[in-house]
Write a structure and sequence with these properties.
This protein is mostly helical. The chain is 73% helix and 1% strand. The N and C termini lie far apart (87 Å).
Length: 498
C-alpha cells in the first residue's frame, strides 16, 4: 500500500487494519517504503493518545508494534470520521485516558502497556512539588529559629550548616532522641537539612528524579517509595552509629534504586536502545552517589545505601502487589507493611547489643544529667555566691532594711531552687553506672553546701546569733562550695573524656 502523503493519520490506521490480526511495525514499514521512521512518530502518538491504536510488546528486529482499537475500526468505517482525519483532526470517540499504572490480573500485555504509557505519557508531578515545598518549608523554620545567633555565624550556619538547636527543633535525629522514645524522628529527619548547600543539592536531585519516578509509579506509590526509603535509610544509619543523621538523601537514593528495579522488571516491554541508555544513566548516578558517600566528610553512606536498598525492595514488592496473582499481591502488601517494622527492629537490636550504642546511652544519660541538674544548680550557685561574696569579704556596706530584705528574699529563692534540684536528684536513675553515680552524689553535695550557705548568710543578715561565728561559718561554707564545684567540674570532664 502506498501511503498518502497528505493523510498519514488515515494511512497508519489502514496499515494496522491490513496487518491484523498481527501488529503493524512502523520500523519495518519505513525500511521497505523508504520513509523516514521519525516522520511517523507524531501521527502515531496522536492516534494512540486518542485511543484509536494501541501499543503491543516490543519484538526484536521488528521494534514497536501497533494494532487497531475498536474505536480505530469505527473511524475507518465512517466517511465522516475519515473526513475529519483528512482535515488533520483526530476524532474523539470517548477515547480512553492514557492507561495508568493499575492492576491487570495476569496480563503480560497490559503490564507492558502500563510500562510504555508510564514512559511515554507526561504527567503532573504533584507529590514531587509538595515534597520539595515541605523540605524548603522546614528549612525556613530552622532559619527563623536561628535568628538569635550572632549575625555572621547565623549566615554561615544557614549556608553551611544550621545551628544544632534549630535542627533539633525542626525534628532532626540523634541517638538520644531514640533513647527518649522519639521514634517518629526516623521519618521527620528526612525533611531536615543542615545548611542551604545541603538543601539545594538534595532538592535538585528530587526535582530531577521525582517527576520521572512519579510517572513510573503513580503519585501514591511514589510517595510510599519516598517515605519508606527515607525511613529505612535513617534506620540503617542509626543501626550502625548513634550519631545524628539529617536530610532527604536516603529517600532520594531510594528513588534511584526503585528506578533501577523498575527498569529491570520492565526491560522486555521497552525498546532495547532505550533500556541501554537508561541503564547507563542510572549507572552514572549510582557512581556519583558512591563518590559522594565516601568522598566527603559528614555524609552518611549508611543512609544512602540503606535508602537505595529499601527503594529496590519496595519497588519489587509494589510491582508484585499491583501485577501479581491475588496471593502474590497479598504477600507483597504484607511485605510493604513489614519493612518499617523490620527497620525499627534492626535499630532496637543495635541499641541492645552494640558497644557503641551502650557507650552512647551512658553519654546521653550524662548529657541529660548535665542539662536537667548540673547546669541549673551551677547557675543558681553562681547567683548565691554573687550575693554572699561581699559578706564573706567584709566589703558589704550597711544597707537599709529594704536592701537587706531584697537580698534575703533572693537567697530564699535560690535556696528553694537548690533544694528542689537536690530532692529530684535523689530519685534520678544512674543505670548502675559508677561515673554517673559519682556525678549525682557530687551534684547533691554541691547543692547541699549551697543550701547551708544560704541559711548562714540569711541568719547573718537578720542578725541572728553571734556575728563573728556566723561569718566564720559562712566563710567555711563558701570554701566548701568552691572546692565541691571544682570536683564536680573535674568529674564531668573525666566523664566526657572517658
Amino acid at each position: 500500500m502506498t501511503e498518502p502523503a497528505a493523510n498519514p493519520l488515515e494511512a497508519i490506521l489502514r496499515h494496522c487494519a491490513a496487518a491484523a490480526p498481527e501488529p503493524w511495525y512502523p520500523s519495518r514499514h519505513a525500511a521497505t517504503q523508504g520513509v523516514a521512521r521519525d516522520s511517523l512518530d507524531t501521527p502515531l502518538d496522536r492516534l494512540r493518545v486518542a485511543g484509536l491504536i494501541r501499543l503491543t510488546d516490543w519484538v526484536k528486529d521488528l521494534g514497536q508494534g501497533y494494532v487497531l482499537t475498536p474505536e480505530g475500526e469505527q473511524v475507518l468505517a465512517s466517511q465522516r470520521y475519515l473526513g475529519q482525519l483528512n482535515n488533520g483532526t483526530v476524532p474523539s470517540l470517548a477515547a480512553k485516558e492514557p492507561m495508568a499504572w493499575h492492576a491487570t490480573p495476569g496480563g503480560v500485555f497490559e503490564r507492558g502497556e502500563a510500562a510504555r504509557t508510564a514512559v511515554l505519557v507526561p504527567g503532573n508531578p504533584v507529590v514531587t512539588k509538595v515534597l520539595i515545598g515541605l523540605n524548603v518549608g522546614v528549612f525556613v523554620v530552622g532559619v527563623l529559629l536561628s535568628r538569635g545567633a550572632h549575625e555572621t555565624s547565623r549566615v554561615e550556619g544557614i549556608i553551611y550548616g544550621s545551628p544544632p538547636a534549630a535542627v533539633m527543633q525542626t525534628m532532626g535525629l540523634w541517638g538520644f532522641n531514640l533513647l527518649q522514645g522519639q521514634w517518629w524522628r526516623l521519618l521527620t529527619t528526612c525533611f531536615v537539612h543542615a545548611g542551604l548547600l545541603h538543601l539545594a543539592g538534595n532538592m535538585f536531585a528530587l526535582y530531577t528524579l521525582g517527576p520521572w519516578g512519579e510517572r513510573l509509579w503513580g503519585s501514591f506509590r511514589f510517595l510510599v517509595l519516598y517515605l519508606l526509603s527515607g525511613f529505612l535509610g535513617s534506620c540503617t544509619a542509626m543501626a550502625l552509629s548513634p550519631n545524628g543523621v539529617v536530610g532527604a538523601s536516603g529517600a532520594i537514593c531510594g528513588l534511584l534504586g526503585a528506578q533501577a528495579a523498575w527498569l529491570y522488571l520492565n526491560r522486555s516491554h521497552l525498546p532495547p536502545p532505550f533500556v541501554a541508555q537508561w541503564a547507563q544513566m542510572l549507572a552514572v548516578n549510582a557512581g556519583l552517589i558512591v563518590f559522594i558517600s565516601f568522598g566527603f566528610r559528614g555524609i552518611s553512606a549508611a543512609a544512602h545505601f540503606g535508602g537505595a536498598g529499601a527503594g529496590v525492595v519496595a519497588a519489587f514488592l509494589l510491582t508484585f502487589q499491583r501485577f501479581g496473582t491475588r496471593g502474590q499481591s497479598l504477600l507483597a502488601l504484607v511485605g510493604l507493611l513489614a519493612l518499617p517494622i523490620a527497620g525499627v527492629g534492626v535499630v532496637l537490636r543495635a541499641m541492645d547489643q552494640q558497644d557503641a550504642w551502650a557507650k552512647y546511652a551512658v553519654g546521653a544519660r550524662g548529657e541529660s544529667l548535665r542539662a536537667d541538674y548540673l547546669v541549673p544548680i551551677k547557675d543558681s550557685m553562681d547567683r548565691v555566691q554573687e550575693l554572699v561574696l561581699p559578706i564573706v569579704n567584709g566589703t558589704r556596706e550597711k544597707s537599709d532594711a529594704a536592701e537587706t530584705s531584697r537580698i534575703v528574699a533572693a537567697l530564699a529563692e535560690e535556696r528553694l531552687h537548690l533544694q528542689t534540684a537536690q530532692r529530684r536528684l535523689e530519685t534520678w536513675q544512674t543505670g548502675d553506672q559508677a561515673s554517673l553515680e559519682r556525678l549525682r552524689l557530687l551534684a547533691s553535695r554541691y547543692a547541699d553546701h549551697g543550701i547551708a550557705m544560704c541559711d548562714v548568710a540569711t541568719e547573718l543578715l537578720e542578725g541572728a546569733g553571734d556575728g563573728a561565728s556566723k561569718r566564720a561559718a559562712l566563710t567555711d561554707r563558701f570554701m566548701r562550695v568552691h572546692e565541691t564545684g571544682g570536683e564536680l567540674a573535674a568529674a564531668w570532664q573525666q566523664f566526657r573524656d572517658r
